[in-house]
Amino acid sequence: MAQTTSSTAKRYETYKGKMQQIADIRNAIAVLSWDQETYLPEKGAAFRGQQITSLSTIAHELFTSAELGTLLESLDNDRQTLDTVAAKNITLSLEDYRKNAKYPASFVAELSKTTNECYHAWINARKEGNYSVFEPVLAKMVALKKQEADILGYEGHPYNTLLNEYEKGANTAMLDTVFNDVKTALTPLLRSIEQKPQVNKAFLHLRYERDRQWNFGIQLLKAMGYDMAAGRQDISEHPFTTSFSPQDVRVTTRIDENDFGNMTWSCIHEGGHALYEQGLDPESYGLPSGEATSLGIHESQSRLWENNVGRSLTFWEYHYPQLQQLFPENLGNVQLRDFYKAINLVQPSLIRTEADELTYHFHVMVRYEIEKGLLDGTYHTKDLREVWNNYYKEFLHVTVPSDTQGVLQDIHWSHGSFGYFPTYSLGSFYAAQFFTAAQQQLPGLDAQITSGDYTALLGWLRQQVHRHGRSFTSNELCEKITGEPLNFKYFLHYATQKFGDIYGL
Amino acid sequence: MAQTTSSTAKRYETYKGKMQQIADIRNAIAVLSWDQETYLPEKGAAFRGQQITSLSTIAHELFTSAELGTLLESLDNDRQTLDTVAAKNITLSLEDYRKNAKYPASFVAELSKTTNECYHAWINARKEGNYSVFEPVLAKMVALKKQEADILGYEGHPYNTLLNEYEKGANTAMLDTVFNDVKTALTPLLRSIEQKPQVNKAFLHLRYERDRQWNFGIQLLKAMGYDMAAGRQDISEHPFTTSFSPQDVRVTTRIDENDFGNMTWSCIHEGGHALYEQGLDPESYGLPSGEATSLGIHESQSRLWENNVGRSLTFWEYHYPQLQQLFPENLGNVQLRDFYKAINLVQPSLIRTEADELTYHFHVMVRYEIEKGLLDGTYHTKDLREVWNNYYKEFLHVTVPSDTQGVLQDIHWSHGSFGYFPTYSLGSFYAAQFFTAAQQQLPGLDAQITSGDYTALLGWLRQQVHRHGRSFTSNELCEKITGEPLNFKYFLHYATQKFGDIYGL
């Protein structure tokens, strides 16, 4: 028996070594991709694409090798001799392995080919401003996604299995409830805001000089607790966070001199993602216990910092005077409360990525309904422009003037990422629920935030969320932290309070 | 017969695919290393090291796989159906493959372990300023290098096989001739310079503001023909050139505000390396025909630009007025000829990397004699401090005040790079011979340089040197371009003319 234990331990080490090697390759891909978005000279793109493909192929071969499968099965059989975290790692890796093994090579090749086509069709459609250019290839993609659901198998709705790629445990039953709450509870709030006179935010669009913006962003990142010795910020077209290990987690931002908010909330948002990655266990590098729980939980971290903290009055009580000192010409005569109102302006609009934190969820809901409908045949790609525009009319009260500002605005479908969008809203709702728990569990939190001190909050997030990796699903984690599953009421309460105050409802 | 041809073509494509995949991994390693030297946050170093090791292991496994060996052997048997370049690629890849296959795994492991030890011993020895800390591990390294020579086999001197790692075809017979020329022909020149009053270079060490230096460096790189859409310059502690494909060749530099020359000649030197890499055939990516000929030829390109062009009066006739405009406070009253003298000052000194283009070769000669002597038993690591210091006394007339400024100054031996140093001198001598040929073959070259136009020169280098890759050895290439093998007389003529003029000999 002792011998079995020792042999299990040895095999577990072999498993760790293999997973770390695969992680090394995936992280190398991440470095190559980061470079692609930040510093790559233009002519380098073609060979860079080829280099990333080669590494991806190798990582895939290693992770789908029969050798790894046999090792995982044998460790799974001996799981009683492993500790809890190790046993969970084996369960998750075996799950990942079996899922990967289900895909026939022909399907993988077809999906890869179609994704490439689809992306280029989307680019061209946007150039021409015409959804019809995208539609035939999108139809092929949807057919493949239906096929993928069949290959992987599913319970209930075929969309569930795609959702689970991003958010394990999520399903249409849960999301129907959530987005029904959005519709029934947020719509009246939105309608009453629409009755009120709009707040002034013109001063946010004066000229905010580039270098001073940059310095302010770095100052915010440092204040949040982002470890600059284990990360860095650079400029890219679209802000993102990437991680090569918990000791090297990088963020990017962009600066628009006529839009103060653009860089500021990108820094705080990406900073939230980065704090999560910096908080993962370095000892678990390459293992499920060292990976983020899910996209929804990842997004909960970015949104908690961006919205619950970064758009709060308490946050700016500390940082606004600093900002006024940096930009006295723009903000010297603007009162804190007017600044606070401006950065929280609610106004239905066309573009998801520019939406405020209230109307944002209607944008997501539209995409959720469409994806679900495409998967079960309620909707067809041919009708998407109309479906899209009608939804926007009904819920956001806006008329979509062009496909580029409508059904063509997001890249996700062209990548075959169906099931991704809902995690954005889940992130906000988890964030509200987590932040409520933090406020209850951390006495004096508001006072700390007012004095620019986020140590306790970050410590709590590290302890409650970051360090667990994939050891719990998002549902499990939520119950563990807050004592109940995801409940929309926390977000509703937060939004009602905040916007009630701002708009005097 | 037609079938054989077609099957050979097919196998050649398989070979190309495998080599490209290996190149993709090696280039990914290069990206990770570039990042390590330029942007890596300090805590990221440990995981980065591990990631590079993982990729190196995979590249090594792929290149030493039995499958590749069989493929290469079969293509080598059918070489008569391949075109010249393809046949040469197979010859070279098979040579590389067989050489790799000679190393027993135990030797590779021992060498890797000792290299690691040796590097750390060197770091520690430098900290303590004491060669004795380094000596015992260096002795182990030398023993391993002797063993390596036996494993690989050699003709004549055991050092030859190590030289061939960097410069195929080089041997002690050739280098003894070359360095004998250095001793017999350059020593009298150096001695007569030492009799002359020294030129003034104090103005090169006034304050040269960082950003203006940077802009000047970029301007020089562009003037040389470095394609900024297929490369970029960044800052690192030690300047270097790295290539991820001919479409993405990057250089780095460093800026010392009190040493104008530091950045300027690093830009021109690395620019010369980079032009070579940008001139390699992208169609031959991953194949020997797409790789640099040798280190000596690589260095010939950097030194031709750095010295024959970049330290010439003609070059500065064009660029000096620009420089004076950038730094009027330092150079406004300095005449071109005085500037030219200052940047060509000859003065025996302690540190190789800071040496002028004449005394430099004595530094290399010392290392060559020591390496050769260590390999054949003439010298022993225990005596190196004394041997080193005596050489410096005899040839450079300087007294070495400390090991750090003496026998511990270079990193190469700690890496196990024996046979590398001579390529530096070979580079200068090839450069002089090539540049003489260019002057003969390109009418009006001097006038073009005087007007800042390097198009014809770069075109000639592309055609004569860059595009051939490893299809010729350095000897073959030299004969092809200049009609004779490497001949020291071209460098001697160049140096005698130039320094005779500067010092009025």
UniProtKB/TrEMBL annotation, chains A, B:
Binding site residues for Zn(2+): 269, 273, 299
EC number(s) on file: 3.4.17.19
Cofactor(s) for this UniProt protein: Zn(2+)
Swiss-Prot/TrEMBL catalytic activity: Release of a C-terminal amino acid with broad specificity, except for -Pro
Keywords: Carboxypeptidase, Hydrolase, Metal-binding, Metalloprotease, Protease, Zinc
Alphabetical GO biological process terms: proteolysis
Domain of life: Bacteria
Cofactor note: Binds 1 zinc ion per subunit.
Active-site residues, Swiss-Prot/TrEMBL: 270
Annotated InterPro entries: Peptidase_M32_Taq
GO molecular function, one term: metal ion binding
Keyword Protease: yes
Statement: the UniProt record of this protein carries the keyword Methyltransferase: no
Protein role: Broad specificity carboxypetidase that releases amino acids sequentially from the C-terminus, including neutral, aromatic, polar and basic residues.
Similarity field: Belongs to the peptidase M32 family.
Name recorded for this polypeptide: Metal-dependent carboxypeptidase
Record organism: Chitinophaga agri
